[in-house]
């Protein structure tokens, strides 16, 4: 029996990098970082574990400060400290929820600044991909048999038996492939690329804005990117934003709604935001868990 990682996004690549006995199964490598423009804030916050990742990849880069803004469209001004109403409205707007669940990590725990590494996360993905090229199986998993500990891949009758499985694919998809019935709720998010003159960002790198059609604005090298909850067609976005519209992309199931009582299976680990179905999960935690597993092996 072999050890496999499901999913070739940054979580799966990090696990594969630190655990060389694993093979990665994925249709493509890169996940969300394959998008044609940046889908909202994409930063690697400076922590002990993110620094370890860059050191281990032999990537040298500077640190920088990211400034976070809070835009109150009702008052037509930026505010220094979000009120309880602001916090609740942002949560409801961004999650599609009817009420606030008390998530204190909402809006990055309301930080005014973040210290991050000055690097495009796509470069980290590419570096990981090059180091893992011989251990990537480009294919699609069609079925997971939990009892037999086996995987069925597209285009082959062979069963791939595992002694350990790391699933970084969305938990909803994993449960579907495993034939397990559990309702996990999520919504799509539409990212819309706009001209820089759409909104005056001042000195902020990204801005939370609950009293508008969108709920967040991010400054990127391609332009400004706004987050719209739900699935919105290109034509709909073009009509909504008129002459400042440049492009749009939809990510399905990326806004996690419920995270209660997730299943546990022997010999299966679920890391990452979507694998663990936990919106509080960050890249730094993936590095921590992947290295801890490697040290125990």
CATH class of the largest domain: Alpha Beta
Query: How do the helices and strands follow one another from N- to C-terminus?
Result: EHEHEEHEHEEEEHEEEEHEEH
Low-confidence stretches: none
Q: What is the tally of helical segments?
A: 7
Give the overall shape, derived from the CA principal axes: globular
- Name the average pLDDT: 93
Radius of gyration of CA atoms, rounded to a whole number: 20 Å
| Main beta sheet | 8 strands, mixed
Helix content estimate: 10-25%
CATH superfamily of the largest domain: FAD/NAD(P)-binding domain
Distance between the termini: 16 Å
Structural class, by secondary structure, is: alpha/beta
Count of distinct structural domains: 2
Quickly give the CATH architecture of the largest domain. 3-Layer(bba) Sandwich
**Per DSSP, what share of the residues sits in E-state strands of 2 or more residues?**
25-35%
What's a quick, concise take on this entry?
The chain is an alpha/beta fold.
Q: Which SSEs are present, and which pair or pack?
A:
Layout: E1 2-6, H1 10-18, E2 22-26, H2 48-56, E3 63-72, E4 77-78, H3 84-95, E5 113-117, H4 121-132, E6 136-138, E7 141-145, E8 150-153, E9 159-167, H5 171-177, E10 186-194, E11 206-208, E12 216-219, E13 224-229, H6 234-241, E14 245-256, E15 268-269, H7 283-296
Parallel strand pairs: 1-2, 1-9, 2-6, 3-11, 9-15
Antiparallel strand pairs: 3-4, 3-5, 7-8, 8-9, 10-13, 10-14, 11-12, 12-13
Helix pairs in contact: 1-4, 1-7, 2-7
């Amino acid at each position: 029996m072999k050890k496999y990682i499901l999913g070739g996004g940054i979580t799966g690549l990090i696990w594969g990098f630190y655990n060389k006995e694993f093979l990665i199964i994925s249709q493509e490598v890169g996940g969300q970082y394959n998008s044609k423009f940046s889908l909202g804030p994409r930063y690697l916050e400076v922590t002990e574990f993110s620094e370890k990742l860059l050191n281990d990849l032999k990537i040298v880069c500077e640190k920088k400060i990211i400034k976070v803004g809070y835009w109150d469209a009702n008052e037509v001004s930026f505010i220094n400290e979000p009120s309880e109403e602001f916090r609740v409205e942002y949560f409801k707007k961004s999650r599609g929820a009817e009420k606030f669940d008390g998530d204190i990590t909402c809006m990055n725990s309301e930080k005014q600044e973040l210290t991050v590494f000055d690097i495009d996360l796509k470069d980290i993905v590419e570096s990981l991909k090059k180091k893992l090229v011989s251990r990537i199986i480009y294919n699609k998993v069609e079925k997971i048999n939990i009892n037999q500990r086996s995987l069925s891949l597209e285009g082959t009758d062979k069963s791939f038996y595992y002694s350990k499985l790391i699933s970084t694919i969305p938990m909803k998809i994993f449960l579907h492939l495993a034939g397990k019935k559990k309702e996990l709720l999520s919504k799509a998010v539409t990212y819309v690329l706009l001209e820089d003159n759409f909104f005056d960002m001042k000195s902020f790198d990204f801005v939370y804005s609950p009293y508008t059609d969108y709920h967040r604005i991010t400054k990127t090298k391609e332009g400004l990117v706004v987050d719209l909850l739900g699935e919105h067609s290109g034509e709909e976005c073009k009509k909504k934003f008129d002459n400042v519209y440049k492009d749009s992309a939809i990510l399905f199931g990326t806004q996690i709604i419920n995270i209660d009582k997730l299943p546990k299976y022997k010999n299966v680990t679920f890391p990452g935001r979507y694998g663990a179905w936990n919106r509080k999960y960050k890249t730094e935690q993936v590095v921590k868990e992947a290295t801890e597993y490697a040290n125990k092996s």
